[in-house]
Amino acid sequence: MKQLYRYFIAIIFIFLLMTAALHFLPKVIMIRHGKGEKLHCPLEPSEVGHGSKSGEDKIRKWPEWSVIKKTSRKASSKLPHVWDNDNGEDRIVSQMEFVPDIQGDKKVLWARPSDFNVNAGEGIFSKCPVKHCTIVEDIDVPHIDAKMWNMQFSHMDVPRFDPSRTKNANQVWIIYNLESPLATPDYYLLDSLFNWTASYRRDSTIVTPYERWRPKEDAKPSKKKRNYAAGKSRKAAIFISNCDTTNGRMDYVHELQKYIDVHIYGACGDGTHNCDRFANQTACIETLKRHYKFYLAFENCNCRHYITEKFFVNALSSDVIPVVMGAHPDDYRAVAPPHSYIHVDDYNSPEDLAKYLHKLDKNDDLYNEYFQWKGTGSFIDTKFWCRLCALLNDPDKPSLVVESLSTWWRPPGVCIRQDQKWRDL
User: Fold this and answer.
1) Helix (H) or strand (E) holding 238
2) How many CB atoms lie within 10 A of CB 286?
């Protein structure tokens, strides 16, 4: 019995050692192979040196540098616009209109349909300008041009898929991610494994936003006058169930409540205001649309380009003014209709913000200025699968390699803490 007990203790001890090794060893390897640089928490206002100038390290923050290696198949030609993920544009419309000179057989994409809400086969591509693609589930299909993995892929999955044996030189591996860097696995030890990125970030190979606003050319505001404040007797609302976030949004909400009425729906409220968004999303949005003037579209973290349905669906589509917290002000300016929202970073405190909201509440003309964008554009279907198929079929597509997925996804300056403001960085 004592011997069995010793064996049991020994097994537990070995398990603990292995767990510690798996946790710490990858980070040690990163330090040793990262030019001796100190690893930074993505929530710190961190810096990374690239090159030198006058003997001193030149400090550059994202998005001024890239870890994606590109090799053009046409040595004498400039990288086509649809592939230029460093130009600051999302290239969505260009990719939607892109029809390459198709050569060869259909491109086959391997993906688990349950991960991406699609069915195996060619159906998802049937209405695309480029239809030469099909989705297969069987990883053992002899010829697979591309494989796409969801955000939960980590270095622990690599041995199972053995890329050294299963990935050929011309195969494209794609990482797909719609969550923030703070809600996804650490992507260390995935160097030079993936070729394309697909996410809401505008420096992705295939930019995949939650919504995409497209202004009409030479569009002018409608001459029809509508009072969007009419019949709205309540000030501000927020639907929220995740109460503990890195940007401290609930702390901000509670401070704001000292100066203006904010009704909290969801698990983070006190139960006074209820609406089950999972059971009846339409009814909740209708309540917001009919009774409230402002919606607090507060994301669960403050990260570059991370703007979700809270802004586009809950607020803009519901005829209320969004008060936003999350991405950098420049990011909202890049994707939102002009003068359609209020960013908390433009105010020194919740009290200052509340004063401005009270001003809008008392002046319908000022309030309605935030809706002059109506009719000047529309939200479009970005045709992700069509764009993916077109790019896969491009015979001149460049060879891309994400040399460090972790560095690309969590670079210095991509997220900030609760005690920071974008304007101060």
Assistant:
1) strand 234-239
2) 13
Residues in the chain: 425
Cis peptide before 63 (omega within 30 of 0): yes
What percentage of residues in the chain have a pLDDT greater than 70?
80
State how far the Cα of 200 lies from the Cα of 223, in Å rounded to an integer: 34
Q: Count how many Cα atoms sit within 13 Å of the Cα of residue 91 in the half-sphere of its side chain.
A: 23
Pairing of strands 292-298, 234-239: parallel
**What global pTM score does this model have?**
0.82
Cα(206)–Cα(197) distance, rounded to whole angstroms? Answer: 6
Instruction: Name the residue with tokens 């050319």.
Output: 217
pLDDT at 46 over 50: no
Residue 95 phi, psi dihedral angles, 5° rounding: -70, -35
State which amino acid sits at residue 109. Answer: L
Active site residues: 179
Least confident interval from 153-167, 269-283, 327-341: 269-283
The more confident residue out of 95 and 55 is 95
CB contact at 8 A, 172 and 146: yes
Which string of b and e fits 300-323 if b means at least 16 CB within 10 Å?
bbbbbbbbbebbbbbbbebbbbbb
Cβ-based neighbours of 46, under 8 Å, separated by 6 or more: 40, 412, 413
